[in-house]
Amino acid sequence: MKKALVLGASGGIGYALVRELNNRGVDVVAFARGKEKLHALYQHDTKVTIISGDALVEREVIEAANGVDVIFHAVSFPYQDWDEKHPLCMDILIRAANIQQAKIALVDNIYAYGRHSKLEVSEEARKEPHTKKGKIRLAMEQTLEKSNVPYLIVHMPDLYGPNAKNTILHETIKNVVQNKSANYVGDLKVAREFIFTFDGAKAMVELASRKDTYNQSWNIPSAHPITGEEIIEILRNETGYKKSIRIVSKKMIFLLGLFQPFMREMVEMMYLTEDPVILCGKKYESKIGPIPRTTYREGIKETINWMIEKE
To answer: What is the DSSP string of the chain?
Structure first.
């Protein structure tokens, strides 16, 4: 892989992908709508070409993909826009990849797996999503699988890390850093997975750099599941935060959803805070090698340092 396009380069995992590709000497086209944010992130990187554009405008995506080997799909949309925008974006991406003879690497979450009774969910697990958003993600995967474009589908748990602002942990960490009242979404005693974005990017770029990894799904788990209590303890130790942290329950999300479209859409995903999906990484470990695993303490510390410096 000599050149790559990252769609959604201004987001958390998009930023991490650009950084990892750049570290490996790959020329990168960083594509997103926010020109100012792209410049703030990449203006000093000589191997990064900044293109401000819309992933829902086919012409702009085709032009940005000119000469690239792999297109990384890291585009996110507000929950309330998923059913309209995600299918359209996938169709445009596939057409662009066909025209430019490029491969596609899809950053995916765990929603398509639905509820699972297994302790760890492997790539072979049956996907029977019970939520609207899980069904949308599964449809995206199936559209990609049916295309004639070489593809990677890479499942990751909830993200956190530098520049990962549209994530469930971001507001908690940010408010702690700013010594404001902070919230934590979900049961403090339930262990869930959160993956450091730079770990996910390292594993994904490694997969994209190989020839025998395509036309498959891959799971990239976190360092290990962690409870909210453990996260809060790390935050207090790293920042000296003394205030209490309010727990945001499913009932509270439901009530907020009466007034806020995003919260209304979030209600159905709250099952993941009660009955988490834990990914199995044995396939990656057996075929690729050790999964990059930054400790939560180090990952949170790096995220805090980013916030202090950049926000």
So the answer is: --EEEEETTTSHHHHHHHHHHHHTT-EEEEEES-HHHHHHHHTT-TTEEEEE--TT-HHHHHHHTTT-SEEEE-----GGGHHHHHHHHHHHHHHHHHHHT-EEEEEE-SGGG-S--SSSB-TTS-----SHHHHHHHHHHHHHHHSSS-EEEEE--EEESTT--SSTTHHHHHHHHTT--EEEES-TTS-B-EEEHHHHHHHHHHHHT-STT-SEEEE---SS-B-HHHHHHHHHHHH---S-EEEE-HHHHHHHHTT-HHHHHHGGGGHHHHS---B--HHHHHHT-PPP---HHHHHHHHHHHHHHH-
**How confident is the model over 28-57, as pLDDT tens digits?**
999 999 999 999 999 888 899 999 999 999
pTM: 0.95
Sign of torsion over alpha carbons 252, 254, 259, 260: positive
What's the pLDDT band for 66 if we cut at 50, 70, 90? Answer: very high
Instruction: Count CA atoms within 13 Å of residue 5 on its CB side.
Output: 29
Q: In this structure, what token pair is assigned to residue 162?
A: 């530098």
Closest CA to 201 of 11, 1, 17, 3: 17
Burial of 251 (0-12, 13-18, 19+ CB in 10 A): exposed
Rounded Cα distance between 49 and 167, Å, is 26
Query: What is the sign, positive or negative, of the torsion defined by CA atoms of 87, 93, 96, 97?
Result: negative
